[in-house]
Structures are given as C-alpha cells and as structure tokens.
Design brief:
With 315 residues, the chain is an alpha/beta fold. The chain has 8 helices and 8 strands, in the order αββββββββααααααα. The protein has a domain at 34-130. It is elongated and about 210 Å long.
Length: 315
C-alpha cells in the first residue's frame, strides 16, 4: 500500500505535535508515560511557589507542581501536584510549602502520615506554610532592629545630656574634684602608714592588753560561777520577811501602839515631854543663877536668901 505524501505530512505533523506536548510536559516535570498520582492542596498564600517546583517526601523529589490557580472569589489558591513515586501515605499527610532562600525558590514537601486511610490520586491534602530563611531572619531581626533603634535613641539622649552637663565650668569642677580625691587618697595612705607604724611600735602593749582582757574575762567567768552558786531564793525570802516586819512596825506606829507610836500619835505624851523639858531648863537656869542655894559651905552657919523665881526663857 502506497502512502501519499499528504498522509505522511499529516503523520509527521501529528508526531511533532505529540512530541511538543510530551516535551512541554516533560519540561514541566510531568512524565505522560509514567503512572502519576495527582494531589491537591489549598492555600491562602503560596509564598511565591511556581509551577514545576519540586515536590519532595523526606527530602527526596517525587514529583512536581503541575498547576496553580485561584479556587474561588475569596482568593483561595488551589495547587495541583504530580507524584510519580508509589510511596504510600495517608490522607492526613500535610503539603507544606517551604524554602525561599536568597537564590532558590519555594518547594513543596509532603509530610507523610501513616494513620488512617491511604491517600489516592485526586485527594486534597491539608496545606500549610513553613517559615523560610528570609521570613525567619526577618522575624528575628525585626525585634532586634527595634531594640537597636531604641538603644541608639537613648544613647543620643544620654550623650546630649552629658554634653549639657559637662560644660566648661563642670569640667573644671570635675578636674578639681579628681585632684581633691587624689589628695585625700594620699592623706589616707599616709594615715595608713602611720597606723601600721603605731601598731608595730605598740605590739607588746597590745599583746599585754589582750592578755589582761583574757584574765578579766576569766575573772568575770569565775564571778559568774560564784553568783550562780548564791542562793537567790533564800535572799529573796529574807528580804520579803524584812519588808513584812518593816510594814508591821510602820502599821503599829500609824496605829499609835508602843512608846514610839504614842510619841507620834498621842499629843499628851508630847505635851508632858515639852513641860518636862521646860522645867529641866528652868532648873538648870536657876542652878546657874543661884548656885549657893543648892551648894553652900559656911563655918558660921547658913543664911537663907529669899527665893527668886527664874526667868522663863521659853516664853
């Protein structure tokens, strides 16, 4: 059977179209001859993920991202991926977008989970986004940047305040204060040296003084032992007895009992003593004025003299 040129041209054109489609999909990472599985994941933001980005499981590339499109009017994005590897994982396995370095782009990793029913082609996996290097650095550097800016601002304020404080007059006062401090330090050094010399020169005296203190402490200890042996209870009882006796005497004096009580309380006793004192004084006065009346020596007899009443010196 002879094939015409038109048929050959048509076959070549179809073959070229098939090769073009196959090559295009192969360049996109889709092998049309392989038994691929297609999975989906939904994201709010794909973080720069692009078609033909690698799909990995535990770091091994098992497929590529085949398509990215909007899912609905709310802005959700549907990502489809082809997985050529027959590695099994459950429907709860997560499709995680990761990467995003300074040079490399984003990739898609399937975090396998083995609990529950196994995933089949056409299933939608839970999607999540892992922080990339740049995002992580930005998250860490942003607080540090804020702190550095605050520190710089505080440092500027401190420097301005310091410059305001350290005017020429303040600098001069500071220099004078440092000079005074050096002088004080020198005086203190001299005093310390003198104190050391004094301690060295009086070392024997200090030793004797400390020895005397030790002896005094020992004597005080002996005195404390002696005091501890004193019968304080007996002394207290004797003192209480003496106080009781003194109270009894004072009570009897207040009640006018006894000679001393009558002397304090009975006015008659006082009047009698007062009269006796007056009479004794008059007798002594008369004895001084008329001694011959009481003592008289005469060879010729006694001649009585008329009695003269003594003057009452108490009136």
């Amino acid at each position: 059977m002879k094939i015409s040129k038109e048929v050959k041209t048509a076959l070549l054109a179809l073959l070229a179209i098939a090769l073009l489609i196959f090559g295009y999909n192969f360049l996109k990472g889709n092998n049309l001859l392989a038994n691929n599985r297609t999975f989906y994941a939904v994201y709010d933001d794909v973080e720069g993920l692009a078609p033909s980005s690698p799909v990995t499981i535990n770091g091994l590339q098992v497929g590529t991202v085949s398509g990215i499109r909007f899912l609905n009017k709310t802005g959700a994005i549907l990502v489809s991926m082809n997985v050529q590897n027959e590695f099994q994982f459950s429907k709860t396995s997560k499709a995680q977008i990761y990467g995003g370095g300074i040079i490399g782009g984003k990739s898609l990793a399937i975090i396998p989970d083995y609990d529950g029913p196994m995933a089949k082609s056409g299933d939608t996996l839970p999607g999540e986004i892992d922080e990339g290097l740049l995002e992580l650095v930005n998250d860490r550097l942003t607080p540090l940047q804020n702190k550095v800016e605050k520190a710089i601002s505080s440092t500027d304020s401190v420097l301005f305040a310091f410059n305001d404080i350290l005017n020429p007059e303040s600098r001069q006062n500071l220099k004078q204060s440092l000079a005074n401090f050096n002088s004080i330090s020198e005086h203190f050094k001299n005093i310390t040296g003198r104190t050391d010399n004094m301690l060295k020169n009086n070392e024997d005296k200090l030793s004797r003084t400390l020895s005397n203190i030790d002896k005094t402490t020992a004597n005080l200890s002996k005195l404390s032992d002696s005091l501890s042996q004193v019968d304080i209870a007996q002394i207290t009882r004797d003192l209480e007895t003496a106080i009781h006796d003194f109270k009894s005497i004072a009570s009897e004096l207040n009640q006018g009992k006894g000679t001393a009580g009558k002397l304090l309380k009975d006015p008659t006793v006082y009047d009698n003593m007062d009269r006796a004192t007056r009479q004794l004084e008059q007798l002594l006065q008369d004895l001084k004025l008329n001694p011959k009346r009481y003592v008289h020596f005469s060879l010729f007899g006694k001649k009585n003299k008329a009695y003269e009443k003594p003057k009452d010196s108490l009136k």
